[in-house]
Amino acid sequence: MSKLRQPTFTLTTGPVNCYPEVLQGLARPVLYDYDPVFQETYERVSRKLCKVMATDEPPLILQGEPVLGLEAAAASAVSGEDTVLNLVSGVYGEGYGFWLQRYCKELMEIRVPFNEAIDPASVEKALAERPDIKVVAVCHHDTPSGTINPVREIGEIVAKSGAIFIVDAVSSFGGMDVLPNDIKADIFVTGPNKCLGCPPGLSLLSVSDAAWKKIETNPTAPSASILSLSDWKTAHKATDPFPFTPSVAEINGLEAAVDRYLEEGAQTVWARHALTARACRAGVTAMGLSLWAASEDIASPTATSVTLPQGVSDAALRGKMRETFGVMISSGRGETHDKLVRIGHMGPTAEPLYAIVALTALGGAVSELTGKAYDVGAGVTAAMEVIAAAS
Ligand SMILES: *Cc1c(COP(=O)(O)O)cnc(C)c1O
Fold first, then answer.
1. d(Cα 377, Cα 215) in Å, to the nearest integer?
2. Ligand 1 atom at minimal distance to the Cα of residue 140
3. Which of 45, 160, 343, 357 is 20 to 30 Å apart from 106, CA to CA?
């Protein structure tokens, strides 16, 4: 038996601890998927998701955590005739290129350093030079960097070109103002396991009419497959069959999350995320540490990335935070691994006081490891000032 104990606080960038309401939802009786009560539940949850996502048509719910939705979007929308433009400002954006590559004729890329954001003007230029680009893909919040791309501006530009716009909004949707129609996304991929406060297990996809047309005319779009979008197109209707068994318990948990979100109100939820991140950033810099994002304008409201001080490893810092203070935070990934650590502000952890918890553990651990006195008190004071100013 392992002697490891669970952390007291999980302040990661996902999976995050669930809202208590979600845990209660998950504990509802698991019904047969063709029980009329479950069929109605599925349709009801789909309709509630229209409200949350501000769409007329219900999103598709795929039965696997959001990488399923992301890969299925590439497989379904991209054909072997297509030139595709992938926008890379971080590890997820880069990773999406591997899937696009598998299905397209030619993959083009715009790449910026992983602490910066894509410049919309560069997208405009690329589309003007290559009018044959059929699909543009971007990650909104590239979580391993904690940075946000200007999807609204990019969406305007892509819409004018007629290309299909695929957006990974997995770790931003539900925590900030990003909605499929507002940003002119054709395939908007998200999931309930980040800012909606559910466990990992489902993908949510909003698909535009233009994207459906592209999928339906794509000879290689999967059907009768776990990667198929079209299989699920009408599954939200209580009268239509499911292509496969849906994750009954996850759907119940999702309904609880959506009810909670609608009750609290989107604006309030977003403000809570933004305030927590602002307080966290103020504390990080006030105690003498540095933010990873090149500028605060592109720092995410749902995660704060902190550059590792010279000589401090990811393993040592996060290990000490967990052992000494019981606080679990996230590491970097791929290119950002061992360069930064990440504090999540997602769903139930998007509470300003959790920023203080993270800051004290971070400051305490980094002071112990370096022998330098990082000013934890100044960090906490700065964060408290941000919180006080907002009330
Ligand atoms: C969490 C996340 C996903 C889901 O993928 P996992 O790596 O399996 O967690 C996809 N995209 C982004 C931007 C995410 O933050």
1. 55
2. 13
3. 160
2 has a pLDDT exceeding 80: no
Check if 107 has its Cβ closer than 6 Å to any atom of ligand 1.
Answer: no
Any atom of ligand 1 within 6 Å of the Cβ of 143:
yes
CA distance 391 to 387: 7
Digit-coded pLDDT (tens) for 254-265: 999 999 999 999
* Helix 266-286 vs helix 352-370: crossing angle, to nearest 10: 20
Gap between the Cα atoms of 351 and 285, Å rounded:
19
Give the Å distance between the CA of 204 and the centre of ligand 1: 13
* Distance between Cα 346 and ligand 1 center (Å): 13
Cβ atoms < 10 Å from Cβ of 132: 12
Collapsed DSSP state (helix, strand, coil) of residue 133: strand
Establish whether residue 92 lines the binding site of ligand 1, counting it when its CB lies within 6 angstroms of any ligand atom. Answer: yes
Q: How far is the CA of 388 from the centre of ligand 1 (A)?
A: 33
Our answer on whether the CB atom of 250 is closer than 6 Å to any ligand 1 atom is: no
> In terms of residues, how long is the chain?
391
Any ligand 1 atom below 6 A from CB of 168: yes
Residue 171 Cβ inside 6 Å of ligand 1? The answer reads yes
Q: Quote the distance between the C-alpha of residue 233 and its chain's center.
A: 23
Per-residue pLDDT at 282 exceeds 70: yes
Q: Tally the C-alpha atoms within 13 A of residue 242's C-alpha that lie toward its C-beta.
A: 21
Ligand 1 near 14 CB (within 6 A): yes
Three-state secondary structure of 225-268: CCCCCHHHCCCCCCCCCCCCCCCHHHHHHHHHHHHHHHHHCHHH
Q: Which two tokens stand for residue 119?
A: 């410049």
Paired strand residues for 1: none
Per-residue three-class SS string for 222-233: CCCCCCCCHHHC
User: Is the confidence at residue 4, as pLDDT, over 90?
Assistant: no
Distance (Å, rounded) from C-alpha 186 to C-alpha 180? 8
Q: What domains can be seen in the chain, in order of their start residue?
A: 9-16+266-390 (3.90.1150.10), 20-263 (3.40.640.10)
Q: Is 318 annotated as a binding residue?
A: no
Q: How many angstroms separate the alpha carbon of residue 170 from the centre of ligand 1?
A: 6
Among 117, 10, 141, 153, which residue's Cα sits nearest to residue 66? Answer: 141
